[in-house]
Every structure is written in C-alpha cells, then in structure tokens.
C-alpha cells in the first residue's frame, strides 16, 4: 500500500508541478493584456476584449496555480498556532483539514461541471452524464452560452479550465493526504 501511495504522490506532484510552472507565466500574459488595454485607451480606440480577457487569464492563473501552491506549502496557514506544533501534530491537523478541503472542492467541481454543461447548451438535471456524452460523441452540443459583454466570447473554455483546475486540486489534496498518512507512519516524504 505504501508503494502505491508513493507512486500516486510522485505522479500527481509531477503533473501539478509542471502545470504550476506553466501557469506561472500567465502573469506575463495578464500584464501584456493590461498593457495593451492601457495603450489602446490612451492612443487608439479602447479595445473591447481586454478587460474580460484579463479576467479569464487571471482565473486560469489562479485556479491552475492552486495545486502547485498547495504542493509547495505556500498556501495560507495560521502560523501563530501551526508553526509551533510538532510534525506529528501538524500531520494530524492537516489530515483532518485536507478532508474538509476535498469536500469543498468536490462541491466546487460539481458546480463547475453543471456550469460547463449549461454553457454547452444543456439545461436538464444530469450535467455529468451529459459532459461524458459530449466527450464520447453520444450527446450533441446545444446553443453555446456567450458572455453578455460587447465582445461576447464563448464561456465554455474558461469553465473547462475551472473543471481541470478543480480536478488537479482534488488530486493534489489526495496526494497531501497520502503524505500525511505516511508521515504519521514515520516515513520521510
């Protein structure tokens, strides 16, 4: 069982490390969009797409970088208490709190799946089976949702990024859970 846990930890950490390193460069994309927005508003006609595109890039940056942040331990903790605890006590507290985080992320993932199904034109009550049907080709895509702004981009791509980000975050939380279990068994991670 320990070998399976270590293999899972290695695989998930590798995927989230690479994804996090790629997502880090999203800040430069965001800066470029905002720079163009400033230049176009000052010297030309204002671009209609810059504000909404900056929001989309920020969502991707934040959601895809979250698992990487959790992996590195750079997430916010209450160090006033947590910092002085023994490694074993930290592992017990992390073991409990990561379960609460997984529950929260599962709720967010279901909401993201429902929202993505809606943006693909599905208005019934089984969004998960619908998305699997779209992937396999057994379901048809309906009327695609668009933003209500003047630019009117399709909404499904950013909602798909949310599904991917929440899934990676859940996988990273399970990796952290396995790390805590191994720490409690006295193993080095």
* Mean pLDDT level: 91
H-E order: HHHHHHH
The major β-sheet equals: none
Poorly predicted ranges: none
Helix and strand content put the structural class at mainly alpha
DSSP summary, beta strand count: 0
Shape: globular
Percent helix range: over 70%
* Number of helical elements: 7
Give the amount of beta strand, in percent: under 5%
Q: Structurally, how many domains make up the residues?
A: 1
Radius of gyration: 20 Å
Could you give the distance between the termini? 15 Å
Pfam family, one: DctQ
Function: Part of the tripartite ATP-independent periplasmic (TRAP) transport system.
Transmembrane segments: 21-39, 51-70, 91-113, 154-174
Protein name: TRAP transporter small permease protein
Describe the overall structure.
With 189 residues, the protein is an all-alpha fold. It has one domain (2-184). It is 74% helix and 0% strand. It contains seven helices and no strands. It has helices at 2-24, 26-43, 50-72, 79-82, 87-119, 127-136, 156-184. The longest helix is centred in the middle third of the chain and has 33 residues, at 87-119. The two termini are 15 Å apart. The model has no long low-confidence stretch (mean pLDDT 91).
């Amino acid at each position: 069982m320990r070998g399976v846990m270590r293999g899972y930890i290695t695989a998930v950490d590798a995927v989230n490390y690479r994804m996090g390193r790629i997502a880090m460069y999203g800040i430069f994309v965001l800066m470029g969009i905002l720079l163009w927005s400033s230049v176009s508003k000052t010297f030309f006609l204002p671009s209609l797409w810059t504000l909404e595109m900056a929001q989309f890039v920020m969502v991707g940056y934040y959601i895809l970088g979250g698992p990487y942040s959790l992996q590195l331990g750079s997430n916010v903790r209450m160090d006033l208490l947590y910092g002085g605890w023994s490694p074993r006590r930290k592992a017990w507290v992390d073991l409990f709190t990561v379960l609460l985080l997984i529950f929260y992320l599962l709720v967010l993932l279901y909401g993201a799946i429902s929202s993505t199904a809606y943006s693909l034109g599905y208005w019934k009550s089984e969004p998960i089976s619908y998305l699997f049907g779209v992937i396999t080709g057994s379901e048809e895509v309906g009327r695609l949702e668009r933003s209500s702004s003047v630019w009117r981009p399709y909404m499904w791509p950013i909602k798909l990024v949310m599904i991917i980000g929440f899934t990676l975050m859940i996988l990273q939380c399970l990796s952290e859970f396995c790390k805590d279990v191994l720490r409690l068994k006295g193993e080095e991670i």
